Amino acid sequence: MPISIGLIGAGEVATLHAGILAADPRVRLAGVYDNVPERAEAFGRRFGCPSQPSLDAVLAASQAVYICTPNTTHAELALAVLAAGRHVFCEKPFAIQLEDARRVHEAAARTKVVFQVGHNRRFAPVYQFLKEAIAGGRLQPHAVHARMNRGELLRPPWVWNSRLTGGFLYETPVHMFDLMRFFFGEVQWVQAAAQAREHGEWDDFSLLLNFAAGVHATMTTYGHATWHFPFERFEVFGHHATYETFEMERIAYTTALDAPTTTLDYSQLSRNERWGYAQEDRMFVDALEGRGTAPVTPEDGLKVVQLITACYAGARSGERIYLQPEAVAIP
Fold first, then answer.
1. How far apart, in whole angstroms, are the C-alpha atoms of residue 37 and residue 59?
2. I need a surface site. Which of 8, 163, 172, 252 has the fewest CB within 10 A?
3. For range 21-48, the mean pLDDT
4. Where in the chain is the domain with CATH 3.30.360.10?
5. Is residue 197 pLDDT above 90, yes or no?
6. How far apart are CA 114 and CA 316, in angstroms?
């Protein structure tokens, strides 16, 4: 019997996930709820699922729920879904306050449901290749530069509003923080400089991160740049080795001083495969079937919130901020 999955939110990211799930024969879309009923009704017609009148109605009809609403609503919705004993796929970020992130983490641990956080970049083939190079010892990272230039904070129109996003770093840059941990392990400390350039909040960050594994990284991220290619990029430097990513399109690498550069191109893949959305949804359904576990856990979600909290604290204080297992040390 197909697994019944409901959705909270009927916007762009919910539409993306619904398209993937509707094509999976293991899944039945059980309904969608949105605070704009007309949007939910149009969504339901498109994907052949009911428009539900409330969160409770979605919970009653579903075994698992996708949370696809603005960032500041994620924690409370996740707690409600967990309280109902339903499995959870929560879009990034996990939460936008450290205390809320801890509450969701603890609730997920108590209920033992499948809980996956929507950090799709981990599953993009470009980043999978980089991860495998590090894990397999072909690349031993020494230093890193990461960049994410968001061209604007206009589309969708709510992303400029920190009351809905939780702040610029919780929007698209949140992916870079998750990838940093995914590639290089736990962060020991961060230093941050920030400016408010255009949107009435800090939208211009330069960061220095030091990892327990001995890697150090710089990261820049702006909300007022352009979509100039590549707006998202990792440069990872080892001993006479360099790996460079170009968004999720391709990766180029060289492994010795006299070695040629090899480039792998993934641009022929569909966007959902190239960006990792299809893979993360398949793995969530796999976990619901008992085949494997959720690949991005509540602990991963909590650690990203800890890291972003530290970045904001460092930008406020001008001090180096040390991260601890259960808290962020703020001077």
1. 17
2. 163
3. 98
4. 124-272+304-323
5. yes
6. 36
Count how many residues are written for the chain. Answer: 331
> What is this structure's pTM?
0.96
Terminus-to-terminus CA distance in the chain, angstroms?
Answer: 54
Start-end of CATH 3.40.50.720 domains in the chain? 3-121+279-295
- Two structure tokens written together for 134: 């590090």
Going 18 to 21 to 22 to 27, the CA torsion angle's sign is negative
The answer on pLDDT for 275 being more than 90 is: yes
Of 179, 285, 271, residue with least CA distance to 232: 179
pLDDT in tens, 217-237: 999 999 999 999 999 999 999
Query: Where in the chain does DSSP place strands (E)?
Result: 3-8, 27-33, 64-67, 87-91, 115-118, 143-149, 187-195, 204-211, 216-222, 232-238, 241-246, 250-254, 262-265, 321-323, 328-329
d(CA 113, CA 86): 7
Tokens of 97: 């306050």
Give the number of other CB atoms < 10 A from CB of residue 188: 16
Q: Going by CATH, does the domain composed of 124-272+304-323 fall within 3.30.360.10? A: yes
d(CA 98, CA 329): 12
Residue 109 token pair:
């641990």
Mean pLDDT, the chain, integer:
96
Decide: 123 and 131 in contact? Cβ < 8 Å: no
3-state secondary structure of 33: strand
192 bridge partner residues: 207
